[in-house]
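Collaborator request log, item 7. Partner lab (contact: R.S.) asked for a structural prediction of DNA replication licensing factor MCM5 to inform their binding assays.
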Amino acid sequence: MTQHHDHHGSRRQPYSPRVVQIPCSVPAVARGQSAGPPKSFIQFFSRNGGKKATSGVMIDHLPFWDDGLARESAMSGYDEGNVYWSEQGLAENQGTAAQMAEKKFREFIRNFQVGEEFPYRDQLRKNTNKGDYKLEVLLEDVMKYDSKLHDEIKDRPSDLMPAFEKAAKDVHAAMLVGRREEGEIVPDVQVIVTSSVIPKGMRDLNALDYSTLVHVQGIVIAAQKPRVKATTIAIQCKTCKTIRRLNVRPGFGSCTIPRICEGAVADEGGDMNKKCGVDPFVVLPDKSNYVDQQVLKVQELPEHVPTGEMPRNIILSLDRHLVGRIAPGAIICAHGIFQISPSKAKSQGAMSVAVKSPYLRCVGVTEVTGVGGRMTDADFTPEEETRFRSMVSQAGFVDRLYKSVAPAIFGHDNIKKALACQLMGGARKRLPDGARLRGDINILMLGDPSTAKSQLLKFIEKAAPISVYTSGKGSSAAGLTASVIKEPGTGEFFLEGGAMVLADGGVVCIDEFDKMRQEDRVAIHEAMEQQTISIAKAGITTVLNTRTSVLAAANPTFGRYDDMKNAVENIDFQSTILSRFDLIFIIRDERNEAKDQRIARHIMDLHSGNATNDVEGEIDIETLKRFVCFARHKCSPRLSEGGAKRLQDEYIAIRQRYAGAGEDGQKAIPITVRQLEAIIRISESLARTTLSPVATERHVEQAVQLFKESTEDAASRGVQGEGMGSPEAFAELNKAEKCIRERVGVGMSVPEQALCQDLSSRNGVSEASVRKALAVMIQRGEMELRSQGRYVCRKR
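Returned to partner:
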C-alpha cells in the first residue's frame, strides 16, 4: 500500500480502515433500498489485483454515501449509486515491518546468549513463575544481536513496542505448552527497555525527537498517586444493545466514542430500518480493561542548570510494573517515547490546536545509585583511579587539597580545611535495629559583613558534585523541605520536593541564614539530624530522604560581632538548631595593619590580573570535584580503637570545661553528644581525604583541634581578657560604656589618657575596663581615634 506525504514532507499514516465510494452505473434497484456493491464490480476489483479503477476520479475526496441522494439521481431506468469498499489493517510495508520486528524479537528472546546462558529466556521464565509478567531488556544487548532492529526501536518505538510485547507473550505462551489448561488466557507481558547510554539533557529535547526513544536524567520532584487507565473501552448502544470495543491510545492518549451506531432496530412494520439515533453509546466500565498508571514530574539536576536560568522539568507517564517504584527525591534515568499530550480544553483558536505540551511515555525507568544517586562504578576508569591514588600518595597532598578550596580568598585556613572535610563527609552507618547515623557534616559561618562568607558558599556550590544554593530571606519551610501541591485539573494533591530534597547526597548552601523566619528554621531540624522529611498533609503521609550537608552563613544579632556582648547575645539562634551544626565559625573583621596590607595586595592582584589562580600544587575545580566523588564512593573509613579511646578522653575533658557554663546563663552553644558524633565525622572525613580505610589517632587529634578552633571558640566568645569572663566583669564594662557616653558628647574630642584617668577616679571604674569599653565602641564605629591616637571623638 502506498504511503502518503503531506506538503511538509512528513509521513502520513495510511487509512486503516478507510471507507471509499466509487460512483458507477448499476442496474436499478427497488425504490427505498440501498444500492450495494455489485458482484461484477467486486470480481473486476479482484481481477485487477486490488487496484483502484476510478476512471480518473480522486476517490479520496468523494462524498460519503447518502441513500437519499442515490434515490434522487435515478435516470433512464438506472440509478446512479455508490459502491463501498474498505481497506482493513496496516499498510503492506508497515505490517511487514511490524511482523518482521516481532519475529526478530521473538528470536532475540529465545536465542540471545551470554556465555552458556540465555538471560532473557531465563528472566522471562523466572518472572512469570513469580507472577511478574515483565521482561527487562537492555538496548545494548539488542544492538549486539541485531543493529537494524536496535535502530528501528529508537526511531519507531510507538510502532515496535506493541510488537515486542506480543513477541514476549508468544514466547511465554510457548513455555506454557502442556501446562496451560484449555481456554486459559495468557497474560500480557510488559517489555521494560533500559539503556546505559549517556542521558540527553532536558534542554536538548526538541521537535526532532518527537516519536523517538530518548533517555533523560533528572530528579523526581513530584509524584501523583497511582490511578487506573483504560486500555480498551467497551461501549454499548442504548437502542440496539450492540457492544463494541475501542482501543485507547497509551500514555495520555484517549479514544473517540462514535456518535452514530451502524446498527438498526425494527420499525413499526417490522423492517430493520430504524436508525439508533445520535450519541447512542454508553461506556460499560465492568467490561473494559485497565492498567495502573502514574504521573511523575522530573526536574533537571541542579548542577545542570546554567546560572541565571530556571530549571526545566518534564512530565513522565508510567504504567503497569513501573508504577509505584519511584519516590520524590530519587535521581532517575527515564527511557521513553517523546510525545505530545492532547489538548484537554476546548479549541480556542489555532494556537490551542497547534501548540502542544510534550511529555515522556516511559518504557523503562532506572533509579541511579551511588554517591547521592549520581555516581556508579562505571563512572571511574582504571586510569582515573590510578591517577587519584598516585595523587594521594604524593607528599603534601593534603595541604594542596586545602589550598584548592576557594584559592581566590585570602586567609581563612581553618574554614577552608573544614569545608574540605564537608565535601568529603563522614561515613554513613546503619545500625542493626535499622536506625541510620548521618555522615554528612553541617557547618555554620557566623561573622561580620565583608568577610567572604558568601564567596565561600558560592565556591562550595561549584565544587560539590551535587549542590543547591539558596538565600534565607527567599526560602520558606516548604521551599526547603517539601510542599503539597493541588493539581488544577483533577484537584488531587501530590508532593513536590524542596531544596534539601533536590540536594540529596550533596550540599545545601543557605546564605543569610539569620534572615529566615524562626518557624522556617524549625522546619529543617529533622532534615539536618535524621536526614528525612516527614509529611502528613492533605491525606499524604510519607517520608522523603534529605541525605545532605548544610553550609549556612549568617550575621550576628547586631550586624557585627560585639565584644561588649557575650556569645548568647551575639548568636541569635536557638540551641536546638546550633547543636545540629558540627562546626561553628566566628569570622571577625579585625583591624590589623599588616593583615589589611596583605589582603589589599591580594585583592589588587586579582583585579589587575597579576594573581595566578593556578598556583603551585593547586588542584583545579573539575579534578577536585571528581576526586571528591571518587573518595566518597571508594572509601568508607571507620574509627580505630586507639582513635576511639583518644576521642573519648577529649570529649570528657571538653564537657568538664563547660560543666558550669549553663548555670550562669552564659552558655550559647551546647556541648552535647551531637558534638561527640561531630568529631567522629570530622575524623572520618580527614581519613577519607587520604583514602585511608581507618581513622587513626592522628586524624582524631586534627579533628579535635579543628573543633576547638571553631565550635569551642565560638562557645566561649564574648568579652576577652584576664578576669573578664565573670558576670561582674560584664557589669563593670557596661558601666564604663555608660560613663563614657555621659562624659563625651556627640562630636566632642577628649584626650584618651585624661578620659581614662577621670572616669577611673570619679566613677569607680578600673582604667582597664574603660580602655576595653573604648576599644569596643571604636570597633562599633561609635568612637574614633584622632591625632595619632591621642584623642577620642564620639561620632554618634
